[in-house]
Design brief:
By secondary structure, this protein is an alpha+beta fold. Among the domains are: 30 residues, no CATH class; 81 residues, no CATH class. Helix content is 35%, strand content 32%. The protein is built from one helix and nine strands, in the order E-E-E-E-E-E-E-E-E-H. The strands form three sheets. Strands 6-7-8-9 form a four-stranded antiparallel beta sheet. The longest helix has 72 residues. It is rod-shaped. The relative contact order is 0.08. Keywords: Membrane, Transmembrane, Transmembrane helix. This is Si:ch211-209f23.6. It comes from Cyprinus carpio carpio.
Length: 203
């Protein structure tokens, strides 16, 4: 049948005179479109709280699922009905008319588990980032501290070496004064008979 077949149909009893027995209105209706169920995170820290939307034909219904419960929503226009409902395990979007019905269903238990894993993964990465940042800061601090200690050590060692060089130079100068031109050896000589010289050296 086609939509053009819609209209009034009358049953007539034939005889000496036709008699209308009953009249029916026949409507040819197309099958409903498949609805679309969309689930979004509510932005809550709760892993099992979701906002969801059910769309079918020209209708749109929205509700919120919070741990095994949600408000049932329903809208009807002419011959089409759209229902949004949920159970402990599923969210259901149902689109129907007098001759057909279709639905879109999402397993909420699986959705909660996936969302919980996603949150745990996010927490893990954030924690890993913070730990890594702390480790980097500690390593940089240790390197800076070690560098300062090494710098101070080298500076002190250089100062001690300079002091030793100064003491050595003073001793060398003192030696030069003792053995140099400023110290004159006096030699006494006598002319004549052999005598014991008065100085440390003989002429």
């Amino acid at each position: 049948m086609q939509k053009t077949h819609s209209g009034l149909y009358t049953a007539i009893a034939s005889g000496e005179s036709d008699k209308d027995i009953v009249t029916y209105r026949v409507s040819v209706i197309d099958a409903v479109e498949a609805p679309v169920l969309t689930v979004n995170s509510s932005g809550s820290s709760d892993s099992c709280t979701f906002n969801f939307t059910c769309r079918g034909h020209v209708f749109t219904l929205s509700s919120t699922f919070v741990y095994d419960s949600c408000s049932r929503e329903e809208v009807t226009s002419q011959i089409n009905t759209l229902i949004l409902d949920c159970s402990e395990e599923s969210i259901i979007c149902n689109h129907s008319n007098p001759v057909s019905w279709k639905e879109d269903r999402i397993n909420i238990t699986q959705l909660c588990e996936e969302n919980e894993r996603r949150q745990m993964t996010t927490i893990f990465y954030v924690s890993s980032y913070k730990i890594g940042l702390i480790i980097v800061c500690v390593v940089v601090g240790v390197i800076v501290f070690a560098g300062l200690v090494l710098y101070c050590f080298c500076k002190n060692k250089k100062g001690v070496k300079q002091a030793d060089d100064t003491d050595y130079d003073d001793a060398e100068n003192l030696t030069q004064k003792m053995t140099g031109d400023t110290w004159t050896t006096v030699t006494y000589c006598t002319v004549g008979g052999h005598q014991t010289p008065s100085s440390a050296h003989d002429c």
